[in-house]
Structure formats: C-alpha cells, structure tokens
Design brief:
327 residues, alpha/beta, Rossmann fold, six-stranded mixed beta sheet, four-stranded parallel beta sheet, 13 helices, globular
C-alpha cells in the first residue's frame, strides 16, 4: 500500500488500455492521467522544479511563473502548494474553465492573455508578458518549459524506459507534439536504446512545429504557434496531422465506451488510427494519453461548443449522435 507525504510522490505509470475492442485496431494506450495533477505534465513539472532547487534558483520568497495551456499549470500549482512557493500561471482564453478554477483552488494566481501577438499568436503574447514581468521584478523565477531540457529528461528517465520494459517487442510509438518534452524524451531514449522502434509524432492541423502553415486551433494541449525550441526532428520518423474535428470525434467515440480522455489524447489516438489503417500488419503499437477528460466537459464534450466551432456535421457524427438528439 503506497503511503505518501507529498502529492508529487504518487504517479501510476503502468496502466495501459487495449483499444482493439473500441477502435477495431491494435493499439495500446498508456494512461498518464492517474496522479494528483491529472496529467503527464507532473513528470516535467517535478523534474524542472527539482533541478531549479538543486541549482539554487528557487529560494524562500521566490515566485514561480510559467506559461501553460493548462496541464503544466495544474502540476506546478500542486507542487508549489506542497513546497511552499507562490505561483503565477500565464495562460490564454483557450484554457478550460475547469483547469483555471483548479489552479486557483490550489492557491495559484492565473493571468489570462486575450490579445495574440501578431506573429507569435497567443503563445507569443504569453511569453512576452512573462519576459516583461521577470525583467521588472527579480523575485519571479521562470522555469520556461519551452527551453528547459529537464522537461524532456523527465521522460527520458521515466516514460520511455517504462514503455520499453512493458513492451520489449514494441514496433511503433505515437506521441503528441506540444512543447515536445514528452516527444523528445521518448524519441531520444528509443533512438539510442531501441532504434528499431518507429517514433511517430502527432500534431494538430494548424500547428507550425514541423513546418506546416498556421491555422486556428481551439483545443489546448498540443500544437504550437512557434517552432518548439526543444524539438529535434532528426529523432522523429514520421509526423501525422489531425484535424480538431477528428480529435472531437475520437474523444466521443472513446467516451461512448466509458473511456473519457482529454483533447490531446483524442488527437494522438486519431492519428494512430489513421497510421494503423495503412500499416497495421500485426505491429505492436503504443500511444501516450496525456490526461483524462473531466477538464474538457465545457468544450470537447459540450455539444453547443462543438457545433459553434466545427459545424453541425461534427455534432451529428456517429460519435456524438446520442447526445445531440437529447432534449
């Protein structure tokens, strides 16, 4: 029986779902949402904070600040509360209400950016705000998940070897591309230790991370408006793009079988399904599910929100038909 004294001491790292009965394809989903932060971002947050403490960057009275679309903000809010730091999360209007309320309940302050930078979009505006804040007040400590190597080292040290231990015959690994900490940590480990494993990055349509044109994106978690500084494409074998409408369809398809996941998971699973439709010849395939779905009840799982942004054809798809017909 685990007994812990700090919330970051617990993380379920060995739970997988066999999605064959749900999706009619052979895919194992690694669930990273079963910890007190509710997402895979607990690993990066813990690694970055531990390193900052070791390096003497965090002292009594320090005020943590970070840009986050949600999950890292929750993880840092939780750890900051546990360790006695103050924390300011700089997010934008796409951040789910439930996520913002959760951060505030944990004692964090939340600043919401509403005006995008002409070039860098909302993410660029978030980062500019933090840079100005740190320049004006040296009490603020910015861990900077976008450039902090500890973000990918956390997954090099934990996530990738955990998958390798469970699946010695792994053929392909699907990882969503956001800041690319999870992606690069896993990709580096497998290319160095198990180079036969194919690494497939899954990116939402509209993300510029791999050179595709920018477009509107409304689901937080994956995708970038600027090229991720941590990204090294030489470790990636293939990139798959997923439209947000397909993300929503996949989330609802999973929910209809009792598995409620977040938008990032819907994107990764949708991309994996399209790849396996072409390549599924008995391969062992694993996809990483970053979080669960409760924080998306007012967006991905809200019929009016989906209809307003993506049209009635998405609402009336088979995956959403049951809820769209209720009155």
């Amino acid at each position: 029986m685990p007994v812990i004294s700090s919330p970051d001491e617990f993380n379920e790292d060995g739970l997988y779902i066999d999605l064959r009965s749900v999706l009619d394809c052979s895919l194992l989903l690694k669930c990273e949402g079963f910890n007190f932060a509710g997402s895979v971002k607990l690993k990066a947050a813990t690694e970055m904070l531990d390193a900052a403490e070791r390096d003497g960057l965090l002292r009594p009275g320090a005020f943590l600040v970070e840009s986050s679309s949600g999950n890292l903000g929750v993880a840092l809010s939780m750890i900051a509360a546990s360790r006695g730091y103050r924390f300011l999360c700089v997010t934008d209007s796409r951040c789910n209400l439930a996520t913002r309320l959760l951060m505030e309940a944990l004692g964090a302050q939340v600043h919401i950016i509403t005006e995008p930078d002409p070039v860098g979009g909302l993410l660029g505006a978030r980062m500019d705000f933090i840079k100005e804040l740190c320049a004006d007040d040296d009490r603020y400590v910015w861990l900077n998940q976008y450039t902090n190597a500890n973000a990918w080292k956390a997954h090099y040290r934990t996530t990738a070897p955990a998958i390798a231990r469970q699946f010695p015959d792994l053929d392909v690994l699907f990882v969503g591309a956001g800041t690319t900490g999870t992606l690069m940590g896993c990709a580096r480990w497998f290319k160095q230790r198990r180079p036969s494993v194919r690494i497939v990055a899954v990116d939402p349509v509209g993300s510029v991370s791999f050179g595709a044109p920018a477009a509107r994106r409304m689901i937080p978690g994956l995708g970038m408006n600027v090229r991720p500084p941590l990204l090294d494409p030489s470790f990636i074998d293939e990139v798959i793009y997923v439209a947000e409408a397909d993300t929503i369809r996949t989330c609802h398809r999973l929910a209809r079988r009792g598995f409620m996941f977040g938008g990032s998971t819907g994107t990764v699973v949708s991309g994996a399904m399209s790849w396996l439709d072409v390549h599924d010849d008995g391969v062992t395939a694993v996809a990483i599910a970053p979080d669960l779905g409760e924080r998306y009840l007012d967006t991905v799982y809200q019929t009016n929100w989906v209809a307003d942004l993506y049209g009635a054809d998405v609402v009336c798809s088979d995956e959403l038909a049951d809820t769209s017909q209720l009155v």
